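L-serine ammonia-lyase
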Amino acid sequence: MVTTEANPVQPSSASSSSQKLPWIRTPLIESNALSKVAGCRVHMKMDMFQPAGSFKSRGIGNYCLKAVLSRPNRPIHFYSSSGGNAGLAAVTASKSLGQHATVIVPTTTTPLMKSKIQAAGGTVITHGASWSDADAHTRALVAADPIGVYCPPFDAEDIWEGNKTLVDELLDEAVLEGGQALDAIILSVGGGGLFCGVQIGLLERGLAHIPLIAVEPEGAAGLAACLKAGKLVELDGVSSIATSLGTRRVARRAFELARHGNVRSVVLSDAQAAMGTVRLMDDERVAVEPACGISAAVVYDNVLRKVCPELGTGSNVVVVVCGGLCNPPLCSSHCTQAELTIVRAHRE
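Tokens:
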């Protein structure tokens, strides 16, 4: 099933405004390849088609929108310290709202991402060797700018509210053709912004029984670490090809929401993330980054059957295709020979 429509779901923050939303309603596509492996109906929620190329358009778009609505007829200069999808989303959203954005990035940010941010209309400032350095400089710039507004990458209620619209869309789809139920959702977790929005959406709609499979890479499994420790913890460091998920500490709210019984925490390897990325390209001609491919790997490597044994042939599972930016050579260069063997085996 394929459905698409621009901006039909309006969060409470924008319900009284005629302002066009900085995100769109994305297609929901049933995948024959994923369904065959899973033994049930698997649908892809194509948030890679958002204006900024990732689900970040929802949450950060809503954050920027609320800032604009709270300051009518006043200019705003948004500042973001994310050199990844969040920064690009901040620029894309601010431009759609008639505002400007500056993204402060560390020296580790790739020239490709810098050029994407600039092409979208943003200003790029390179500062510091780490995200922490860039973020500190970002906050200093905001403090010195009377019209400056800090735009966080994931840890804010307005961001979760925007991401919650994904659940509204899924339930509006009637998936679930013939009124069939939504039986599980698979999504990738970095800082927890998407996870928070989706889980809040499920809880508010009385759907706490629906399994929410939270997937992380071994080198950046912050949520899994929190659940194991029983408290909010910070990783010593992050190391994964799924760079969009590379956060040392998840949002506190993400940890709190993950303690509900419907959450299934899954940690996979970089090899599995690369495999999921390659298989989606092979099977669906969908180009995604490893941070998204790792969610597909839950299906391809039969992890879904292990964490949700209750699913049957008629069950409906949604994989959130959270962002698109495929770079097969990058996947290969970050995998060991043994890991590449796994990827090749899945392609054959």
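The longest strand covers residues 41-46.
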